[in-house]
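@channel sequence for tomorrow's demo:
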Amino acid sequence: MLRSIKDITSYPVEALDGHIGTVKDCLFDDHFWTWRHLVVDTENWLPGRKVLVSPLHLQQPEVGMSVHHFPINLTKSQIEACPDLAADEPVSRRHETELARYYKHAPYWLVSDIFEPGRPERFDDFYDEHSVKQKLEHMEKLKEIEACHLQSAKEVFGYHIDAKENEFGYLDDLIVEDQTWKILFMVVVAHKWLPGRKFLIDIDWVLHFDWQNKSATVRLSREEIESSPVYGPHQPINHDYLGKLYDYYGLPQRKDKSSMGKTTF
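structure tokens (generated this afternoon):
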């Protein structure tokens, strides 16, 4: 079954022996487009902690008219032993940490007002203070960080999405399949010329993600996307809809998508 990651974020999380917190984020591998960790905010149970739960322990989210739950097949004591978010941070946070180290400033998440009086607002001014060796080491470190391929779903929401010729819209959501936990689609919202309209784009149609500039380019033209089958946030992504979508673009439908059922939110 297909699931909206944006909708899952904030679901209560239930262990085998009781409530433990809420879903805070999803960390995914941008090379294989697979869910790597569920980030759980343990709230009052373990104050201040965000633990990482492997998809191996995730069960299908329970969805009802008034109650949503994300059950996991671990006990509270097992969850307490799970690694913290700091043990496997996404690329974006590792980038911030490396920049903080290089420019010798406190990471923004530890500073109440990073642009307080007397604090420089641009770090470029200090770039020349580093030796050539330090600059090269810094660039190598950034490359190593990007090579880990671990991204935060919450942080990619809002990324600019460009069509082949020009800007199109922004990434609003990701759709994941809850058997393999593979990300199959992006939900993209058009800019002002089609306010509020959403489009479903196969993740395989993305040409390039620019993680530093927070953008992605798809191999479709703006005109093609605008005329594609209408997508609504509560519309089931079933065989009929997928058939129309792939027929419209004249592109083959992958086997892992042809067997998908409806989307649940």
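heads up for whoever presents: Confidence is low (pLDDT under 50) at residues 108-123.
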